[in-house]
Amino acid sequence: MAAMARALPRPGRRFRWRIWASAGGARGAAGGAAAGPQDYDLLVIGGGSGGLACAKEAAQLGRKVAVVDYVEPSPRGTRWGLGGTCVNVGCIPKKLMHHAALLGHMIQDAHHYGWEVAQPIQHDWKKMAEAVQNHVKSLNWGHRVQLQDRKVKYFNIKASFVDQHTVRGIAKGGKEILLSAEHIVIATGGRPKYPTYIEGALEYGITSDDIFWLKESPGKTLVVGASYVALECAGLLTGIGLDTTIMMRSIPLRGFDQQMSSLVTEYMESHGTQFLRGCTPSHIRKLPDGQLQVTWKDGISGKEDMGTFDTVLWAIGRVPETRSLNLEKAGVNTNPKNQKILVDSQEATSVPHIYAIGDVAEGRPELTPTAIMAGRLLAQRLFGQSSDLMDYKNVPTTVFTPLEYGCVGLSEEEAVARHGQGNIEVYHAYYKPLEFTVAERDASQCYIKVWSLLCTGDAHGRNPPHLL
Ligand SMILES: Cc1cc2nc3c(=O)[nH]c(=O)nc-3n(C[C@H](O)[C@H](O)[C@H](O)COP(=O)(O)OP(=O)(O)OC[C@H]3O[C@@H](n4cnc5c(N)ncnc54)[C@H](O)[C@@H]3O)c2cc1C
Ligand SMILES: NC(=O)c1ccc[n+]([C@@H]2O[C@H](COP(=O)([O-])OP(=O)(O)OC[C@H]3O[C@@H](n4cnc5c(N)ncnc54)[C@H](OP(=O)(O)O)[C@@H]3O)[C@@H](O)[C@H]2O)c1
């Protein structure tokens, strides 16, 4: 539930945008926008989950709004349209391919339910990828139409700050545009990390920015990392029948309940995903036949080992997109350790009329629904007289591994650390989904866990369990 606080009244200043001619270039606007002076109440940098939600909400409240969005191609050259990470290289293609993998599993179950399916079943990557990519392209188009319908001006430009109210954009042809606005929202998200210190990592590896846009099957794949992206990608690749290995240097799903995380990886292992535990890659070489030879250090045995793969997927975390924004020109402060933008409970940065939402903001969950809600609430506070703040506590999340894992609140480890072992009670239950019974599926990792605070309070000396 959102906590309540009073939003500060904003001065009613208006700002103008001007079109700048680059050296030797003609005056004109990018993307066919008409030349001439215009005012913006709100300028949003980044057309992803948070930015689009904020812009649309502000426009619905009758404000003059512009969104700038630009996708820097991945090192591999993959590019995509409007909508940000979730739509193009995150939740949407991931969930659809996860579904493709689950369907494969269901086809295996189908004969128990009377379906006669010819064996062996085959999966066609090309067909799946094309269908998923076409759906994503339709979403890109849908976002453009929604902006147009709400009269939000869209600029396909890469933005950086000139001063506290002005942003410069470079359009595809190199043309420069200056846009100014009363309020500016930074919603530029993040991009996958590359371990550039590893020889061959950038040259031969890919990331989640590429995997969903591959036209050909990735084949035998090594996934490096052990969090959401790594486990989800490895799970779906295994599910569609590819030889898949996860290389993890430490524990799976850091920050999640470790008992539950182990159940997730045990299930994956029993369904074909291979795990190299305690290992870190040291270099990648391309062999004459095109395969990638990966050398790694086994931290447990201390030995070096080697394997060949068709694809190496880095899933080792993400970096916020703040480096090219020229934040210092506007006086917006970042955390020097991770380059995320420092924000307060109003989503305001160190500059009161510049805000940051979504993955780019410090201390926020990197999830689409929170970015969307934060964007909507921010627009309402700025223009709709609402004073509701985004409440980031107890945000539920799901890891879309072959056995899906949903959770909310503190893990058992965090609960013990916060409240003490003697002050909590943990409830465990195995369960068997009904559909597993007929298909005789193994349900040994289907598990529910709830912890509650032990406390005295009601007439019986105990409160009912608190689901935190
Ligand atoms: C593989 C994967 C799977 C995921 N699955 C889920 C899931 O199942 N559920 C979930 O809740 N979350 C999921 N996420 C996380 C989710 O995608 C992000 O939390 C969400 O997209 C963040 O939204 P955002 O608005 O902060 O930024 P983004 O959606 O990343 O949008 C930022 C936009 O700004 C643009 N931009 C950057 N710099 C500039 C600039 N200088 N000028 C102009 N434009 C710029 C970017 O190109 C991008 O279009 C997943 C992420 C990944 C990588
Ligand atoms: N279903 C969903 O909602 C969903 C799905 C995908 C992504 N997301 C969002 O996207 C965010 C990013 O996820 P992510 O999985 O990319 O990153 P992440 O949560 O930051 O995890 C990074 C993983 O890579 C490992 N790692 C880091 N550096 C490494 C290195 N140099 N060598 C080897 N391993 C390394 C980490 O191991 P250590 O633990 O040892 O550090 C960890 O396992 C998440 O926080 C999540 O909010 C959400």
Short précis:
The protein has helices at residues 49-60, 84-89, 91-110, 125-149, 201-204, 208-211, 228-239, 258-270, 327-330, 368-383, 412-419, 434-438, and strands at residues 15-20, 38-40, 42-45, 65-68, 153-155, 158-161, 166-170, 176-180, 183-186, 190-192, 221-224, 244-248, 274-277, 279-286, 292-298, 304-309, 311-314, 318-320, 354-356, 397-399, 405-407, 424-430, 447-453. With 468 residues, it is an alpha/beta fold.
Structure description:
It comes from Octodon degus (Degu). This protein is an alpha/beta fold. The protein has 3 domains: 4-77 and 130-192 and 319-383, FAD/NAD(P)-binding domain (3-Layer(bba) Sandwich); 201-316, FAD/NAD(P)-binding domain, CATH 3.50.50; 410-467, FAD/NAD-linked reductase, C-terminal dimerisation domain (Enolase-like, domain 1, 2-Layer Sandwich). It is 28% helix and 22% strand. It contains 12 helices and 23 strands. The strands form 7 sheets. It has a 5-stranded antiparallel β-sheet with strand order 2-1-8-7-6. Strand 7 (166-170) and strand 8 form a beta hairpin. Helix 3 (91-110) packs across helix 4 (125-149) and helix 3 packs parallel to helix 7 (228-239). The longest helix is centred in the N-terminal third of the chain and has 25 residues, at 125-149. The protein starts with 14 loop residues before the first strand and ends in a 15-residue tail after the last strand. The site of NADP nicotinamide-adenine-dinucleotide phosphate (NAP) has 24 residues, from helix 7 and strand 20.
